[in-house]
Design goal:
This protein is 19% helix and 35% strand. With 185 residues, the chain is an alpha+beta fold. The N and C termini lie far apart (72 Å).
Length: 185
Amino acid sequence: MSRIGKMPVSLPKGVTLQVDQGNVVTVQGPKGKLEQQIPAVIAVELVGNEVQLKRPSDAKPHRALHGLSRALVNNMVLGVSAGFTRILDVEGVGYRASMFGKDLVVMVGYSHPIQVVAPAGIAFEVDKPGRQITISGIDKQLVGQMAAQIRELRPPEPYKGKGIRYRGEIVRQKAGKSGKVGSKK
């Protein structure tokens, strides 16, 4: 049995889960409401204050869907109860970020600032010097996707390490070219 799939998902206080027709799971909590369609072969059961997911057989596709479905339901429960955040660091001389209303404006070495519009359910936050961007929301997939799109504007380069990187990401530095100093022909 799948190690992840067999673990029950416990519902915190204030979080409700409902399974509709077509295996659509709706989770509602203090931070909002999320919906996700779970594959039809996976049975979702609400037992007391826990959610259990069961698969019909030990076939490989069923095992894979079992773990995936449990992870999706768990992420929805965590999202509506606590939320998710990703932190990006902006490194480089003259590189900075700022807020323009609810949108993010990033200046990372191009001739113009780049404005990133916040989709529904996502909130941006920038610290005072403009070196740290915090992306928060209840949908883990959407938070990760927005963080990846912002990082893609100027990924960290390996020679000086300038660019936008995830918090804790290690960028391996290359030595670069080293010319011979003082050589005469």
